[in-house]
Specification:
Layout: E1 15-18, E2 40-43, E3 51-56, E4 67-68, E5 74-80, E6 92-95, E7 97-104, E8 111-118, E9 129-135, E10 154-158
Parallel strand pairs: 4-10
Antiparallel strand pairs: 1-2, 3-5, 5-8, 6-9, 7-8, 9-10
């Protein structure tokens, strides 16, 4: 169609507008020049989504924690800066345990929760296990296709070593 022109814009910033100036081009005969166009404004999303991670106890009034006792679970809350495309339990990297009950909040679409469960104790361990929960970059996108930034990893210690009897001494007096 000779009345439709296409342009490719480069160097576009977050907020951009396009306008064709008066007399910028002429018709095929070279005599009729264009009138000034309306301004078309639009926004371009170039910002990567972010995610913050918090680990809390499972009490009725949860508080942030940095360690777990043997057998304890924890609630993990993922808060995204905007709605995500493709965010799932597969987006999360966990060491020292695993996540269950991974789900999106029913009303706050940028909030996801899961339950952290401790892994099996290392029989050679001499101290608490180190737990890390993280979301690496590029694991999900926003609606504009921007890949996420790496989250700040959440770390905690899990004392999953059960006490053991080391020795028993019989002090029977004879």
């Amino acid at each position: 169609n000779e009345k439709i022109y296409t342009a490719t814009l480069s160097g576009v910033t977050a907020t951009t507008s396009v306008k064709v100036a008066k007399d910028a081009f002429a018709g095929t005969t070279g005599t009729a020049k264009n009138a000034e166009s309306n301004t078309l404004g639009f926004k371009v999303d170039t910002v990567a989504p972010t995610v913050s991670i918090d680990v809390t106890n499972t009490a009725a009034t949860p508080v942030s924690i940095s360690s777990l006792k043997a057998g304890e679970t924890a609630k993990v809350v993922f808060t995204l800066s905007e709605e995500a495309v493709g965010f799932s339990d597969k987006s999360v990297r966990v060491s020292g345990g695993f996540l269950t009950d991974f789900k999106q909040d029913a009303t706050v679409k940028t909030k996801w929760t899961a339950t952290f469960n401790q892994g099996q104790p290392d029989p050679k361990a001499t101290g608490p296990a180190q737990v890390s929960i993280n979301v690496d970059s590029g694991r999900f996108t926003d609606a504009a296709g921007n890949g996420n930034d790496t989250a700040t990893p959440k770390t905690l210690s899990a004392d999953n070593i059960k006490p053991a009897v080391v020795s028993v001494t019989d002090n029977v007096m004879g």
